[in-house]
Amino acid sequence: MVLSEFAGVSMPDWIDALLRIVFIVALMTINAFALIYLERKILARLQARVGPTRTGPIGTLQSIADALKLVTKEDVRPITADRWAFELAPYMAFVPVFLVFVPIPFTETWFIRDLNLGLLYVFGVLGLNIVGVVMAAWGSDNKYALLGGVRAAAQAISYEIPMLLIIVAVVMVAAGRLAVDGDASLAGSINAIVGDQTTTPYILLQPLGFVIFMIGALAELHRPPFDMPIAESEVVGGYFVEYSGMRWGLFFLAEYTALFLMVMLASSIFLGGWNWPFGADVGLGLQIVLTLVKTSVMIVLVIGSRALFPRLRIDQLMAFSWKVLLPFAIVQVIANGIILAYGGADWIVGVVSFALLGALFGLIYHLMRQRKGEGARTVSTTPATPRVITAPDVTPVEAGGD
Amino acid sequence: MEDGVTATQVVFWILAVVMLVSAIGVVTAGNIVYAALFFIAALAGVAGIYLILTVEFIALVQLLVYGSAVVILILFALMLTRARERPQALFGRSRPLGIAAALGLLAALIGAIVATTWSTPETSAAIQPVGLQAIGDAIFTIWIVPFIIVGVLLSIALDGAIMLASPDEDDN
Question: For residues B35 and B78, what is the distance between their CA atoms, to the nearest angstrom?
């Protein structure tokens, strides 16, 4: 449908399907190339360096050089590694990410398939990615890989829950709005949600949802400040420490593609995707540009957060998900339910969500203050003792205790 | 329909073979992590069958729930067993009991299959797929009490796990 309309010709179904696959593979590759270069450049700028400069004009061919190096590198398998788990793991990590592109709308009519259960599909399929990570971790027969994989699994499962709950809250709002002038049963379709945001992006209705979604996305993507599974200084690269060559490249590709996907999903369901801001449609047909602009801004923020925030500890990360994000997500779902069940207006939903967001930030600030004092005391009394498990360690500050 | 093989049938048989091979793999794999990985292949096959039956919601929930569940299973397997070694106790003293339980389950399933009146192409036209909205309405109105009981049960299990796992107050 999409591509044949675009090309203005009719073609058999299987060619159409093939073209869609080729399109997504090409997009993933270009995206990875672009993101590798961007990440290096942005991080370099934020650290007062210039980044790659030698390969091509201002270093733009750096990604090509990286890819060539990966392809020509020897693919080593440790002799004690488990053969099947080790060799299949990169594909198991990569294929789910690839499949998740199906319901993502690039424009109002450009998508692979508009699934009625699109949001559920994204999380159901993306969740399988962690199986590949655990396979790699266990198959490598390396204790750092295993530690990284166990961390990744714990982190992915913990952050999936607040993220899914917040998606439920968003779908509740969407169903309420779509019921007014459409079909409420479409509320699970990403394209229908984007289509509902012509005047009001959902970030105004569910700001808490947006913040929790982005925090969860950073954790799911193993991006700093939540990159303990691949922390170089702790587990020397984590679950892919034993991989080299193109197998490592597949993990890398999966990670950058997942970054693009998550950010695009966030910009679709919270920032209005292919819509012009606040209904100011000038009718230029630039929906694809709008989608990509919103996605790109978010990507720059995500990459920048790598340089801006120090890494958390694994116990802080887990406590933050279970003790802070999950209760807030549940409260948001209950609040939405009560407001919508009694026919409350959209602005009430938005105000309540903003209030909850304020409470979340207030709590984080309070915990940071508390933690700072505690850290100072720990340093003065027992400088060398690492704290094992602590309850309120949820702050993105550097822990003074260790 | 009767003479040719439809695409649905081809997909069904592929899925069936995948499910059966994986299911056999789960019980015969010497390595507990392999067994867990075969398990997720079998469950993915079941999700595929649900897709063929056009109940996408159940298929996606199957992936969502069991994807995470199998990962947790692997973690437990890694933490609680020596997964690297071949399990020694696969055929222990409880083997006759296991065989009896398996045969009993097999008999019950065969009995259920034989006792069911299967829909023919004529009657199956009357069966409409149940919409997601209908499932939601049923769960949250007619079946709300069982739903709440299941929720309470799961919460109790979670709280119990936290109680068992949490360190004593003075351990901090």
Answer: 12
